[in-house]
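Team,

Forwarding the record for the chain on the shared tracking sheet. I've put the sequence and predicted structure together so nobody has to dig through attachments.
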Amino acid sequence: MERLKLDVLGLCETRWSGEGHFASGDKLVISSGSPDGGYGGVAVVLSAAVKNSLLSYTPVSNRLLVVRIQATHVPITIIQVYAPTSSCAAEEIDDFYEKLQAVIDAMKSRQVCVVMGDFNAKLGLGRDFESGVGDYGLGQRNERGDMLAEFCRINGLVVCNTAFQHNLRSRYTWISPDGHTRNQIDYVMISKSWFSSVLDSRARPAAECDTDHHLVTMKLRTKHFRRVRCKSMAVRPFDVTRLRNPDVSEKYSVATENRFSLLQDRYNEECTPDELWDQIQAGITEVAEEVVGRRVRKKPPKPWISEEVIALAERKRIARCTGKDQEYNDLKLEVRRRIRCDRRK
């Protein structure tokens, strides 16, 4: 992400179990997977600059994840998808598009909508203005491509990585295991009303990710900013774990009792309920500050992947770009082995 200066990264087929978010170094990873894991799964990674702009996220299924980010003018809703493959039943693909359509129908019209991921569909070469497909697709459209084109037409979406002229190497997004077949099945789409803000979109074959898919990027002309937080959210919470200590707990009880005794002596009928509550709240807070104290902020966790593995992954990327197949295969196995070792630590 740092090398390509990416702020938001979508992942497909993560095979992670459950749903939620976690920190990875200075980045935030949001995941939506199946209960047991092992198949499907989508995730969105937010950079350090963007994670504070996060408004909300909604894990829909192990194929759909919705993330909302606050931008300068309006929120950006990112829908990360992983569509069923051609081997899946027709009912499964219909269920996927029904859920995706329900997500878009629930959005407000003025929001920026970005739909991205692996659609396992070929839109083909040639412009289809009504469906938002540009001149720079690839191959022949298939049945799943017809479904995707109809979905784009209904929702007014533009397929960004078919709209910008690039060489063929920057168009195809998937390579078969034997290396002979290349297809364009991964897409980044945006609302037509916001397409003028897109500066570029294309596949990045040089971004070696140890997968048969190529990274697809979109450069969007917008500014994210840190979400405004109220002061109460910025204040560190009290370290209530200290109350497990019998001495601290007894000291807190005595101090609280003494403070309430003083309030009872000062209480008079002229004191309004709001004024009384303010005094009680201030008393409890002052005692907690003196006896319990505030929780100490923890340092962000370090990345679990070592620097040596990152260096090996960079060597692997260079070997693939320079056509050194044997060195690439050797480094690929070594990187996987080192990652498993780092994960066990």
